[in-house]
């Protein structure tokens, strides 16, 4: 089911599905139609792809109330507890504007302002994840975004998965629209008669949504074009094989393209985990998906020692990294590249997916080498502040002119020179 390999045989990166030429062309046509026709195109495409004929996009208060009636009180309570933890964690990421006066009267600083309007894409159907609503909408709320607009595909009868609606209400989403696919991305990016254009689009989707986000980037900002889910477990002989196997399967069940890798210096643990994976996988509801993931993209890598294990993990730069070792805090200092790190036997990855507080929107496919998890920073913009004093300009102006002249930009130099000459005349 899963291969046991040495470090040299372990692949470092995988090709992320970026879409075929036919898919990209189809998305371009959808974007062009929505840009030209607005609501009419979105309505036509929603009926075509989702089978839903809608008079209005907006989810009503009555539909929110019905959604709460359709889920259990226990689900609502769990969602509220998770939301509270996620909000509390992201509150710690908030930044403040700052200004720093200098002795000569110059003031330099940075203004921090939230984005005006953000769109959150939430998948529907079998890939409906209420937890993603919390992870995408709450950081925007904490950042102070004035309006969060959520789009999600309707079912053929025009309804929305009830847990998704409950999550939207609990996260404080301002408006939920029944639309999905590339047409929803286009509506958010360009705006229509009834859908306001946003400044940024976040949230996961299928390949058509990913292509659409990539194509509208520049018109709006996006979070990232994420690949399939990944987990790397670094474990030593103290790890329980059943725990390791269960954690690997927690990601393998997402998608046949998902990657689950164990890195360990213990050949004994490697052999037992391989057996555990077969036994546990056979009992899963999504066993076909998990088995395909393990077969095609999973591996157990045996290293000489723990330093080599961490070096291999850093080379993979995984989305999720678990350290199930005797002293995980000792080895944390060697972790250089990971979207999120889970330390010790009581920190399985699903705790981070749903409840702990840190964001589960993480860089994939090795991009943890340079990308970070979704955070409050993704929903703010920074403006530099410069207030030069007369004294500072007289002092620094000649240096500015020299640098401008070296680049052949005479008007740049002249904008300084005219002021310096004026000051000299006034002094004379």
TrEMBL record:
Q: Which residues form the active site?
A: 319 (proton acceptor), 320 (proton acceptor)
Instruction: Give any Gene Ontology cellular component.
Output: cytosol
Give the co-factor note: Binds 1 zinc ion per subunit.
Q: What top-level branch of life does the organism fall under?
A: Bacteria
HAMAP family annotated for this entry?
HisD
What the entry lists under InterPro entries is as follows:
Ald_DH/histidinol_DH, Histidinol_DH_CS, Histidinol_DH_monofunct, Hstdl_DH
UniProt keyword Nucleus present: no
Record-linked SUPFAM superfamilies:
ALDH-like (SSF53720)
Which PROSITE patterns is this protein grouped with? HISOL_DEHYDROGENASE
Q: What is this protein called?
A: Histidinol dehydrogenase
Q: Which reaction does it catalyse?
A: L-histidinol + 2 NAD(+) + H2O = L-histidine + 2 NADH + 3 H(+)
Pfam families named in the record: Histidinol_dh
E.C. numbers: 1.1.1.23
From the UniProt record, give the pathway where this protein acts: Amino-acid biosynthesis; L-histidine biosynthesis; L-histidine from 5-phospho-alpha-D-ribose 1-diphosphate: step 9/9
Entry keywords, A to Z: Amino-acid biosynthesis, Histidine biosynthesis, Metal-binding, NAD, Oxidoreductase, Zinc
């Amino acid at each position: 089911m899963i291969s046991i390999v040495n470090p040299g045989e372990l692949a470092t990166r995988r090709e992320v599905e970026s879409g075929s030429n036919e898919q990209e062309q189809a998305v371009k046509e959808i974007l062009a139609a929505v840009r030209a026709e607005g609501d009419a195109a979105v309505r036509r495409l929603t009926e075509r792809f989702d089978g839903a004929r809608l008079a209005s996009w907006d989810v009503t208060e009555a539909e929110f109330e019905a959604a709460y009636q359709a889920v259990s009180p226990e689900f609502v309570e769990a969602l509220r507890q998770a939301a509270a933890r996620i909000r509390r964690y992201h509150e710690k990421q908030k930044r403040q504007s700052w200004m720093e006066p200098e002795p000569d009267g110059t003031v330099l600083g940075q203004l921090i302002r939230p984005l005006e309007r953000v769109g959150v894409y939430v998948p529907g159907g079998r890939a409906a994840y209420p937890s993603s609503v919390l992870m995408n909408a709450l950081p925007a709320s904490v950042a102070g975004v004035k309006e969060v607009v959520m789009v999600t595909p309707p079912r053929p009868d025009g309804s929305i998965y009830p847990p998704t609606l409950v999550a939207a209400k609990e996260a404080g989403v301002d408006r939920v629209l029944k639309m999905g696919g590339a047409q929803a991305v286009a509506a958010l990016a360009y705006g229509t008669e009834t859908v306001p254009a946003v400044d940024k689009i976040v949230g996961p989707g299928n390949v058509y949504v990913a292509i659409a986000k990539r194509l509208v980037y520049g018109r709006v900002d996006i979070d990232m074009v994420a690949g399939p889910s990944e987990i790397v477990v670094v474990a030593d002989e103290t790890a329980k094989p059943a725990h390791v196997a269960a954690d690997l399967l927690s990601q393998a069940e997402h998608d046949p393209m998902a990657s689950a890798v164990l890195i360990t210096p213990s050949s004994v643990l490697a052999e037992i985990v391989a057996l555990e994976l077969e036994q546990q996988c056979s009992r899963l509801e999504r066993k076909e998906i998990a088995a395909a993931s393990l077969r095609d993209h999973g591996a157990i890598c045996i290293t000489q020692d723990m330093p080599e294990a961490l070096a291999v993990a850093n080379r993979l730069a995984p989305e999720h990294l678990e350290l199930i070792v005797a002293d995980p805090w000792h080895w944390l200092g060697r972790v250089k590249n990971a979207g999120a790190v889970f330390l010790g036997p009581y920190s399985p990855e699903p705790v981070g997916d749903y409840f702990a507080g840190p964001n589960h929107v993480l860089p994939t496919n090795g991009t943890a080498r340079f990308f970070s998890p979704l955070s409050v920073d993704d929903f703010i913009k920074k403006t530099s502040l410069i207030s030069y004093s007369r004294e500072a300009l007289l002092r620094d102006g000649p240096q500015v002119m020299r640098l401008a002249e070296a680049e052949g930009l005479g008007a740049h130099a002249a904008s300084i020179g005219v002021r310096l000459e004026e000051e000299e005349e006034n002094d004379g």
